Amino acid sequence: MPSSHDWINKPLGVVEAMFAQSNSNPEWEAKVLEYFKGQLKEKESHSWVPSLNDVPLHYLKPNSLVKFRCLVQDMFDPEFYMGVYETVDPSTKVLRCGKYKDVTECGVDLNSRNTVTAERQTFYCVPIPGESPWAKEISFLSAARVVPSTSYVPSRQKRSYEEDDDMDTQPQKTKWSLTELQSSSPHGNGDSKRQETEAPSSQTTAPSDCSSHLDLNFPLPGERGPACLVKVYEGLDSFKLNDTLEIYGILSVNPVLTVIVYPYRDPSLLLLNPTESMETPEEQRAHDPPASLVPRLHMLYARPLQHNNPLLPSAPTEDQSAFVSSFLVEMASVRAELLAYLTHVLLGDGLAAEYLLLHLISNVYTRRDVLPLGKFTLNLSGCPLNSYTERLYQIVQQLVPCSYRLSMSLHTMNSMRLVPKKDYVANRLVSGALQLARNTSLFLDETQLEQGQLDSSGVRNITALGNLISWQKVDYDFSYHQMEFPCNINVLVTSEGRSLLPSDCQVPLQPQVTPPNMEEYLTTIHMAQFTSQINKFRVYLSLARTLDYSISDEVTKAVEDDFVDMRKDDPQSVTAEDLHRMLVVARLLSLSLGQTTLSRDGWMRAKHIDMLRRSRTEQQKSLNGNEP
Amino acid sequence: MSSPTSTPGRRKRNRDDIPATPKSTAKAGSDGLVSPPSQRRRGQDSSNGDLPAMPTSPGTDIASPAVHDTSLFSSPRRSVLPSEVDMSSPLMYGTPSSRVEGTPRSGVGGTPARQRPDLGSIRKAPQVDLHSEPPSADGAVASEQALGQKLVIWGTDVNVGTCKEKFQRFLQRFIDPASNEDENAGLDLNEPLYMQKLEEISVVGEPVLNVNCSHVQSFDADLYRQLISYPQEVIPTFDMAVNELFFERFPDSILEHQIQVRPYNALKTRNMRSLNPEDIDQMITISGMVIRTSQLIPEMQEAFFQCQVCAFFTRVEVDRGRIAEPAVCRNCNTIHSLALIHNRSAFSDKQMIKVQESPDDMPAGQTPHTTIVYAHNDLVDKVQPGDRINITGIYRAVPMRENPRQSNVKSVYKTHIDVIHFRKTDEKRLHGLDEDSDQKLFTEERVQILKELASKPDVYDRLSSALAPSIYEHEDIKKGILLQLFGGTRKDFSQTGRGNFRAEVNILLCGDPGTSKSQLLQYVFNLVPRGQYTSGKGSSAVGLTAYVMKDPETKQLVLQTGALVLSDNGICCIDEFDKMSDSTRSVLHEVMEQQTLSIAKAGIICQLNARTSVLAAANPVESQWNPKKTTIENIQLPHTLLSRFDLIFLMLDPQDEAYDRRLAHHLVALYYQSEEQIEEEFLDMAVLKDYIAYARTYINPRLNEEASQALIEAYVDMRKIGSGRGMVSAYPRQLESLIRLAEAHAKVRFSDKVETIDVEEAKRLHREALKQSATDPRTGFVDISILTTGMSATARKRKEEVARALKKMIQSKGKTPAMKYQQLFDDLRGQSEAAITKDMFEEALRALADEDYLTVTGKTVRLL
Prior knowledge:
The complex is a heterodimer of chains A (628) and B (864). Chain A is an alpha/beta fold and 628 residues long. Chain A contains 24 helices and 17 strands. In chain A, a hairpin with a 4-residue loop joins strand 11 (421-423) and strand 12 (428-430). In chain A, helix 2 (11-22) runs antiparallel to helix 3 and helix 15 packs across helix 21 (531-544). In chain B, the strands form eight sheets. Chain B has a five-stranded mixed β-barrel with strand order 4-7-8-10-9. Chain B starts with 6 loop residues before the first helix and ends with a strand. Chains A and B meet through strand 1, strand 3, helix 13, helix 19 and strand 15 of A and helix 3, strand 4, strand 7, strand 8 and strand 9 of B.
């Protein structure tokens, strides 16, 4: 750890020093980036940088280096700014650098010859939607451990220290207690303790009435955390909407940035100043929210996140490969444990547990023209009613880093905004619940759906869900046209009968046990798991999805032969669709065991479990004959 | 140049202006409301009110506030002014002269000039004129060229005289014989184009001259460069030149105001995304879609101040959005006595328009950019939200400021475009019948690549296999879709009364569920720029056609177009065609043959173009295709609609081992091949896209003699097949289909002639499709009447036979007025050798009922 953390505490000083040295040689910009990249490459150094996700905004020093784990929710228009400008005061006429700053210092000589206009773009970033409480907590705890106290004011931090102690001393086992389970309900009104640690901007920095009219535009309802306007200087084309990034940048909370929208404006000013009259108040509010609520971040370095599981090394470095190879040994045993756990959760149904496991590690790994490959939407039918699905979701939520439960009641389907829509008045993309980060688990609870009328927005929502499942894309509504955004979301549908939504694979649940008290039953199962065990599951699920996979020529041949054979017996029984699905199952099955190539055995197993599943669905069909 | 009579008026005005100038310049200097650096030179210029204030040569910084001491502008200077500035120079042009001072004028001067707020406050740009040598040190640049007409506008290399001359020469001489622009319709292409336009102006009286920049460029590249780089200076010069020329020619013309030149098509029609700081203050053309327009904003051009003490009045012009209020009355020297009189100030119209990048030229995964555009004067309300337009204008950037009293500036500029010219790109799509104007531009290299590809003998197979590579086999279907993507040649027979001849190929895919029909549709939808994808289940007739909406704000009725109109010149993919309600399907009748959509709703009666190809997919009614039934019976679609499809394909599971093996291989490969391997194997989707776009735009094949003969033969042959069995096996519609397909195939080859090989392929494909869809399952023959009348000839014959047998049987029973339905059915079945289904029996009953032989009431059959 270097003695001075100037590059964290005063990054602008570093930038300015480099600018001053450069003598207007444009190369200094690249140097700055290199410097910060180099600093961050050092071991552990990125964990010294305080994170906006974990630390309340008012504990952070303005103009210091911070990081932010986020999703790019909207991309604003590019803006031109003064890259280099000259001060107006003739006695101290110097060139200043305007990069990484929102506001110029001292008077600017606008007529100077040396002014350089440059371009940058603003991204509206929100914390990763649906991030599980455990992921937040773990990243918070690890951050609290390493962040040097220089970045906080210790005295003000008292409360969070207490909190840390509290958490550390707490017996691990009771931490995932019933209260915890209940409190982390889908709409995230978590327990009071966590509210304090999550840097909820609305509560700590502003009275509630102030934040109420400011819509921070989170994709999911009930989300909290800081939204951020990120100013991007380099590599504009490399970023895409809905990317998950870890951004390192200079925090700017200058109050000048806040545009106060006066209810009464001087009409003559309005008339004469064209720059003011062209923005609607809505637009101003969306694009220049108070910096205390939506801080600005001047990006120095951004790292695309493959996943947001804090238990895994995030960057694909040597670190990670070492981690992976060490974990691969354990893979099979962890899988067995997880399978046993899921079997208990699914009321003793081993086959359904197997499929759920495969679903949880599925991932769209590539697209062939319009066809997404690797998606594995699971429809668990025959779910017991009475909040079983809710419990099931909570258990899934404990396992994956990102998830969201959409209760498909008539009311929500008719009223909720699923598809993001462009609001041309405020000139921003109004988010919807389907604007999710990659690999988010979307839990569609169809058991909540009752009979009744879907109105037009309900139909649109259902269509959007159908498109999402079949093509892994969401058509954002730009009112004059639609725009297609590919996504990568694991959709799990729970339903009573067969789901009305399409799915890759339907598994009717066959409970082997019928516990008299479902809640108690699930809670007991849950309690029986140690945190260390759960953490292992979490690592396992995130890791299995990142593994590479291939099929050898030999096995290809075998699969082909097999397919021809199957068709020979009864061409109607096996279609191309079935082969598609079996190939995906085989892939996931192999990966779940840590095998990166398909073996003959793997293929036979995949065939076998698919056979079991199909016999079960057919059985179901013959039971209630009216099923299509 | 300009008539001397105009001078007095101008001179007076100038004198009026002067007191205001010092303040305004000083203010501009300290406030620094200047455009960003690339504009700086001119920004600086314009911040300097008058020539005398120009103390140094252009190289030095003259705008520093220290220079702007008010003392510089002492009264003696004022008298110098008029002689210093040439009245015809652009400095004078464009000043608000709505306030005519009553001086008699003629010619150019007789027509009031109209302000051009789109060009900004150029009137203040200093320029040294040719008649008098400037008194100041300006000569650094000027003196050496003082004798010639080489003086330039400060900060540019534009010499007004030369520029004017060049432009006049351009107007008088420019001829573009190859012109095919719609705007030039009716003009003689061998005469100077713009002189004809001037003539038009003199007749029509609309004082606007649109000038295509590419014309200027081909005529005089240097002039073009100046126009692009210094539009603010050059365009007024153009205006001047035009007006002189015009009034010379048509001295008696009366125009509302002087002619304004509106250049458009600034060479590169740029993407909004590619605008960068270097474009500031340059003339640009960008394309986009209007998403919002503001209310009309009256913008003050000139403020009128009156002294409360002595009633002396003065006028102050707006300088970049600001008015410098004179602090002292010049007449009575009272301080702060001047008050603004609103209704004597001059205003101009202004409108803010937001334009969004058109979805076609956006990188995937990003959101579209928007740009603010200001329209002035008569360009206000020219465009509506939803219009796709090309905008030519000047790109501007203004620094932002939170508080005018604050010295800290937010280091951001606000950018906008002052529009000079609008051009709607989709206008003709709705109203005209010409080819699209927004042609995709291809680079030389790209065209070379495409042509190379086209010259390959197997291009047809290559392209068809590149189409949706993830879908296995179905080669003929892919070929059919490929031809649909290219389309036939558009022909106009309106003179012979036939009207338009459909060039679009319609295709219906039917078959078992799960045979990747939807996937094909999705692929096509993603491939074509103007594709629409709808599902029969989810769309109503309204959603397909168009509906009328009342705008909640303006109460104006707005026509909102649906999928079919939106996919004009594209492909409309309709999934689950069979699930569509009958009323929805019925709108397709018109679209699929006449290629128009008639709308009569809420007082709006119109006919919209819907030259769209329809690619539909239908599932069989019984969820599984029944090979024992005809196509019509399987999908239960009205034959009137079916006959409008050129090609109907069945996508069935072939169920044979070799196929299975290939399919399995294909699918497994899909799951393990890496991205690169796939790239190698197949053509890039982008290349395919460009290939299609190129062929659609530039290739218009015509039938040659041989091909026509081949077509005739093919048609005769098709007719012959049936005639032996008393069936009609082809209709003129089939011939038309053949022609279209042959043309499309010629397009695939980039050939301007339809040759025999095209006809051969068209025939083959058509036959394949017919073989699949129009084979009579009972006889095994291809029977086109299945598709055209909904029933095969044999089926009809059999129906008649059953009816006859039934009648005979009833007659043989003697006089029984009423019979039991079930009994009759059983009897008939017993009597007949062939199996008779209930359907057939009922059909026979119906036939007899039609003959008025019997009636069926409930379970009894009565004879009449």
